[in-house]
Amino acid sequence: ETGKPVTAKAAVKEALFFDALTEEKLREILQKYGRQINMTLEAVPRLLDKKYCTLVVLENIQKIQPFQINKKGYGIQSAWITVDNIGKIAKGNL
Predict the structure, then answer these.
(1) I want to staple 53 with a disulfide (CB 3.0 to 4.6 A). Which of 18, 38, 44, 89 is the partner?
(2) Are the C-beta atoms of 60 and 70 separated by less than 8 Å?
């Protein structure tokens, strides 16, 4: 959760990227992936102003000992951060 300690780790199995979204494309995405992302076709009207969609499929999800990270320079609301070494931004010892 954004603003909370890191509590899990996972591997990315697949990343799916969609652009040039139209109502038809949104319906196709939700028909194919809606159950997995807990969204129904009823969401289409509120998504019509979106330009892009990224779906990240995770595997090997594991709970870990929670730890805080320093998000300086990433923005306080960053939910995803890509780093070469988590130790560089982790507060305390890992």
Answers:
(1) 18
(2) no
Write the burial class of residue 7 (CB in 10 Å: 0-12 exposed, 13-18 middle, 19+ buried).
exposed
CA angle 38, 40, 46 (to 5 degrees): 105
Burial 70-86 (b: 16+ CB within 10 A, else e): eeeeeeeeeeeeeeeee
Residue 50, both tokens: 């979106």
Q: Which DSSP category does 4 fall into?
A: S
Share of the chain above pLDDT 70, in %: 90
The pTM assigned to this predicted structure is 0.73
Average pLDDT (57-67) is 91
Q: Is 43 left (phi over 0), alpha (psi -120 to 50) or beta?
A: alpha
- In 1-94, the DSSP E strands lie at 6-19, 52-67
